[in-house]
């Protein structure tokens, strides 16, 4: 397991480096002279030159890249143009809110999507199955910001006062109210993914149900209920878990629109706000942060997959001995 | 389908394509999605000519509910939503289409280049770059790309690339990995087929194999993905424009219509939300359905995997 | 090719009552919403200690028969039968719960592909233990592992230290032996259904597994239904043979008669298609045509299209029943075997 973790982490290094190269390139291509922005438009040329030297902007590109990379590794994502505060501080403020939102959405996806898929597979080609499949396809097709707008329309105009539809209550202030304030956004964020997970669970269940070992369990006289919940579901969920992992990354990205609609001050909102005022260090810093999180989430998913799948776990152990 | 057993692989494919439309039409769901595609195409082509009002003309009756004169009501500036909708539909569909063409060409080229040299540096460099694009949050990557590319006027020869094309290209960039992965996987699968080995054993060069033999045979999964990609591109455009980072006002697209609608939702201006929402959702649904049906009909890999598995089991007898 | 010697086989006919009797079995699958009959008018009897072969091409419904008998098919598949009697009890009258206890208890099944017969995410030990928990109430939990090791030893596998291993860590041959051990774990086992148990194994392993099955039959007086499309396995293993074509029985014969005096043209053509049997030196026979679609509307004999020895219009117009062949224990679904039809043909010729 340890070896597997190390191997998987090692394989992520080139991707992480490439992410940093892309981010650095975007940053340098972005309009705006960082030195000019830091000293202000009216500063004398000497001050500007000094700032340039301080910020090492006169060094060759590759030197700049490596000193920038060294900063990144130390956890310094740069400084905002607008309020001169470290980007990491801004991320630190906003991240918990987005995580709360993403976790709720993920729970929603799992709790609704997986059972729907299982029911659909067990009633394959019956009316229930058809209805679930149509609903899933419909769900996938409606973009999450459309769902969000309709939720605002429903709870903001038609039935006001039932659920909060604007703004965010910090979890430190009032736990229940905080969870309520992220409920509708989480539903909007999750809705398209629920359909996806239901469809995937269905096809994966059907695939596993047609396997010989399910027949063999039946031939042994194992109870049908046990066959479905113990023999089938565990193996059928392997691909679903992989997709859920990938979706965690998309949830972080997808929260951009949903946070905008519901006025939630999370990471996504930070991205949009900073880009709107062309505060590129913040925008690209946050983007890079999300990309790195995405890579690590995928590693965790891979490792989880290994924990569930003995072939990988044991194969790794015995193959290396 | 009547193809004799001796017909070679390529002509079988061509025969498939000729009757593809007819076979799709034979299925109820495919029929529905084909009709949907037709309606959207018609709106994109002739929609603006049917607009009853100038989409930019300000009216004196702001936020009016749908009526006989204003079929979809009016917006906060009194503009006719139906006319804006018709003009906006053309922009949205055009952006989606251009983005997919861009991603399809670039993605399948990169994917094939990677697949031909699988395991080599070129392969891993290309595919890691694709991973990186996927890792960035796409809704922000798109405006960052347009923001950076749009600093100076871009031109290809005499053609100046306008903002709409720029957005389409940026969306295309984030879709490239999807096509690259599929093209690579298809190439890897095809390279193992006997006919590629045969061409090689005759001394065929890998570039010729790629262009003349591989491309026709990996086209099916790419076409299928193009349908899904179109659905995705349109919803990305809508999201980005909705955030105010895509198509800029006063230009209209489904996304900007929804962005206009946002502040007035809680005032009950449902017509501003409902019509563009339905347009986006139905568009995505129609192309997802089409993709599903196309995959059933012509993706040889989706079909042969089940067939192969079966025959290999039967054939294992001796 | 194994030589056939009729006299070295036990004579199970003399031992009376059959242990399994199936009549009028009809199994229907659903394909794109349309019911397709996979097996029709199927009957089978198995006597104690007897190995009955079930032979036919791929898709002739052999495996479906086994799954139908064991009650493993789930809707939309539909199984109807006049009777499925196991040791005097009609399985169709049992409650779902009782029928479940029969599976793996009195009647077990082994499959074609041993690696896929085990759940890939569970250890061999845990899959074996669950069989004991279901069908060995005589054992306490603490005795399970000893019993597993004993059962594995019976099939020639030293299981010590391997119960915590996963299926993929064993070879195909080992897995099939383990599967046999699992299937035979119940003390009440009367009939073992084997669905092409050696098809995915290589030849030497195949011989070992067949030898193991024969040993079990001798030791425990097990009856078996052996599905195969390999006639050499039939010759080596079976006492009696049921030949299937397109979901129906075309011939039932003692193994010796089957090879020496096949009655149905399909059986004859099958035998001619075996390399080196029985006419050495001749060009190998290849059967023309293909099995008709199961949902085809066919008036006459289902084999008429591919038959080399049709006797006339009757083959295309009237469906043959199973007729008793003269001087033999064989029955065959062919008008040539029916004395009445043959007589009628005589008459029209003269």
UniProtKB/TrEMBL annotation, chain A:
One GO CC annotation: plasma membrane
Domain of life according to the entry: Bacteria
Gene3D superfamilies assigned to the protein according to its UniProt record, in alphabetical order: MetI-like
GO biological process terms on file: transmembrane transport
Pfam families: BPD_transp_1, BPD_transp_1_N
Assigned keywords, A-Z: Cell membrane, Membrane, Transmembrane, Transmembrane helix, Transport
Sequence intervals crossing the membrane: 101-122, 134-159, 179-198, 237-264, 284-308
Alphabetical list of SUPFAM superfamilies matching this protein: MetI-like
Location(s) in or outside the cell: Cell membrane
Membrane topology of this protein: Multi-pass membrane protein
InterPro entries linked: BPD_transp_1_N (IPR045621), MetI-like (IPR000515), MetI-like_sf (IPR035906)
ABC transmembrane type-1 domain location: 95-305
Family of the protein in this entry: Belongs to the binding-protein-dependent transport system permease family.
Protein name: Peptide ABC transporter
Source species: Nocardioides gansuensis
Automatic annotation (TrEMBL), chain C:
Compartment(s) of residence: Cell membrane
Primary location: membrane
InterPro entries according to UniProt: AAA+_ATPase (IPR003593), ABC_Ni/Peptide_Import (IPR050388), ABC_transporter-like_ATP-bd (IPR003439), Oligopep_ABC_C (IPR013563), P-loop_NTPase (IPR027417)
SUPFAM superfamilies: P-loop containing nucleoside triphosphate hydrolases
Protein topology in the membrane: Peripheral membrane protein
Stored NCBIfam families: oligo_HPY (TIGR01727)
Protein family according to the UniProt entry: Belongs to the ABC transporter superfamily.
Protein name: Dipeptide ABC transporter ATP-binding protein DppD
Organism encoding this protein: Nocardioides gansuensis
Gene that specifies this protein: dppD
């Amino acid at each position: 397991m340890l070896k597997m973790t190390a191997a998987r982490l090692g394989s992520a290094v080139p991707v992480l480096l490439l992410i940093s190269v892309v981010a650095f390139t975007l940053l340098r291509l972005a309009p705006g002279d960082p030195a000019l922005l830091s000293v202000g438009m009216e500063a004398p040329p000497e001050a500007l030159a000094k700032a340039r030297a301080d910020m090492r902007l006169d060094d060759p590109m590759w030197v700049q890249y490596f000193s920038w990379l060294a900063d990144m590794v130390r956890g310094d994502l740069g400084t905002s143009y607008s309020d001169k505060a470290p980007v990491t501080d801004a991320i630190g403020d906003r991240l918990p809110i987005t995580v709360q939102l993403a976790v709720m959405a993920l729970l929603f996806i799992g709790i609704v999507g997986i059972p729907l898929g299982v029911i659909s597979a067990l009633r394959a080609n019956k009316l229930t199955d058809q209805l679930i499949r149509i609903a899933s396809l419909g769900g996938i097709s409606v973009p999450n910001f459309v769902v969000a707008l309709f939720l605002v329309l429903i709870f903001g105009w038609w039935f006001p006062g039932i659920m909060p539809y604007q703004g965010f209550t910090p979890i430190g202030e009032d736990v229940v109210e905080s969870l309520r304030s992220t409920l509708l956004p989480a539903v909007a964020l999750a809705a398209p993914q629920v359909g996806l997970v239901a469809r995937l669970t269905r096809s994966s269940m059907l695939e596993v149900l047609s396997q010989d070992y399910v027949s063999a369990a039946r031939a042994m006289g194992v109870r049908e209920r046990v066959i479905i919940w113990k023999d089938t579901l565990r193996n059928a969920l392997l691909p679903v878990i992989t997709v859920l992992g990938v979706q965690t990354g998309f949830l972080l990205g997808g929260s951009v629109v949903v946070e905008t609609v519901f006025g939630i001050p999370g990471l996504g909102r930070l991205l949009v706000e900073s880009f709107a005022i062309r505060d590129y260090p913040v925008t690209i810093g946050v983007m890079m942060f999300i990309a790195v999180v995405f890579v690590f989430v995928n590693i965790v998913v891979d490792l989880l997959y290994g924990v569930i799948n003995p072939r990988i776990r044991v194969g790794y152990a015995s193959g290396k001995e | 389908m009547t193809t004799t057993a001796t017909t070679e692989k390529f002509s079988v494919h061509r025969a498939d394509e000729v009757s593809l439309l007819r076979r799709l039409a034979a299925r109820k769901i495919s029929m529905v999605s084909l009709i949907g595609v037709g309606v959207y195409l018609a709106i994109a082509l002739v929609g603006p000519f049917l607009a009853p009002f100038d989409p930019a003309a300000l009216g004196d009756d702001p936020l009016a509910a749908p009526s006989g004169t204003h079929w979809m009501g009016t917006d906060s500036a009194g503009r006719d939503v139906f006319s804006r909708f018709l003009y906006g539909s053309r922009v949205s569909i055009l952006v989606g289409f251009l983005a997919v063409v861009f991603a399809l060409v670039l993605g399948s080229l990169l994917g094939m280049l990677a697949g031909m040299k699988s395991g080599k540096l070129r392969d891993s460099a290309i595919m890691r770059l694709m991973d990186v694009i996927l890792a960035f949050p796409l809704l922000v990557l798109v405006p960052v790309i347009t923001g950076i590319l749009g600093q100076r006027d871009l031109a290809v020869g005499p053609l100046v690339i306008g903002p709409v094309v720029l957005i389409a290209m940026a969306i295309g960039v984030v879709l490239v990995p999807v096509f690259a992965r599929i093209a690579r996987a298809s190439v890897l699968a095809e390279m193992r087929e006997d006919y590629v080995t045969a061409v090689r054993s005759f001394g065929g060069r890998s570039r010729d194999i790629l262009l003349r033999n591989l491309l026709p045979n990996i086209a099916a999964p790419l076409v299928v993905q193009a349908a899904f990609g179109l659905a995705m591109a349109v919803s990305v455009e809508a999201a980005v424009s909705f955030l105010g980072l895509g198509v800029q006002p006063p230009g209209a697209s489904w996304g900007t219509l929804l962005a206009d609608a946002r502040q007035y939702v809680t005032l009950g201006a449902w017509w501003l939300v409902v019509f563009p929402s339905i347009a986006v959702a139905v568009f995505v649904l129609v192309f997802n359905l089409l993709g599903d049906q196309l995959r059933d009909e012509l993706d040889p890999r989706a079909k042969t995997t089940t067939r192969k598995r079966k025959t290999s089991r039967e054939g294992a007898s001796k | 090719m194994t030589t056939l010697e009729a006299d070295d086989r036990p004579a199970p006919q003399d031992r009376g009552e059959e242990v399994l009797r199936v009549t009028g079995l009809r199994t229907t699958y659903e394909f794109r919403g349309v019911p397709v009959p996979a097996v029709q008018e199927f009957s089978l009897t198995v006597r104690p200690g007897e190995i009955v072969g079930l032979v036919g091409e791929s898709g002739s419904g052999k495996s479906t028969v086994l799954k139908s008998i064991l009650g493993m098919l789930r809707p939309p598949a539909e199984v109807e039968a006049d009777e499925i009697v196991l040791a005097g009890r009609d399985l169709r009258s049992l409650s779902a719960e009782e029928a479940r206890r029969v599976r793996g208890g009195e009647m077990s099944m082994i499959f074609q592909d041993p690696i896929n017969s085990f759940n890939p995410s569970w250890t061999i030990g845990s899959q074996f233990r669950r069989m004991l928990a279901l069908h060995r109430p005589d054992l306490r939990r603490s005795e399970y592992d000893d019993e597993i090791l004993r059962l594995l030893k019976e099939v020639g596998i030293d299981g010590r230290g391997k119960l915590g291993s996963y299926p993929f860590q064993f070879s195909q041959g080992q897995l099939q032996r383990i599967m046999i051990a699992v299937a035979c774990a119940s003390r009440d086992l009367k009939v073992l259904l084997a669905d092409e148990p050696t098809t995915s194994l290589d030849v030497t392993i195949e011989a070992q597994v067949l030898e193991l099955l024969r040993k079990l039959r001798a030791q425990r007086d097990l009856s078996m239904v052996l599905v195969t499309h390999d006639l050499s396995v039939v010759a080596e293993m079976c006492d009696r043979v049921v030949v299937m074509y397109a979901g129906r029985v075309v011939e039932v014969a003692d193994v010796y008669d089957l090879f020496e005096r096949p009655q149905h043209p399909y059986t004859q053509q099958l035998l001619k298609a075996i390399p080196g049997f029985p006419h050495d030196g001749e060009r190998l026979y290849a059967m023309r045509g293909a099995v008709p679609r199961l949902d085809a509307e066919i008036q006459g004999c289902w084999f008429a299209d591919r038959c080399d020895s049709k006797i006339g219009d009757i083959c295309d117009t009237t469906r043959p029943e199973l007729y008793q062949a003269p001087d033999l224990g064989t029955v065959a679904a062919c008008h040539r075997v029916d004395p009445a039809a043959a007589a009628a043909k005589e008459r029209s010729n003269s």
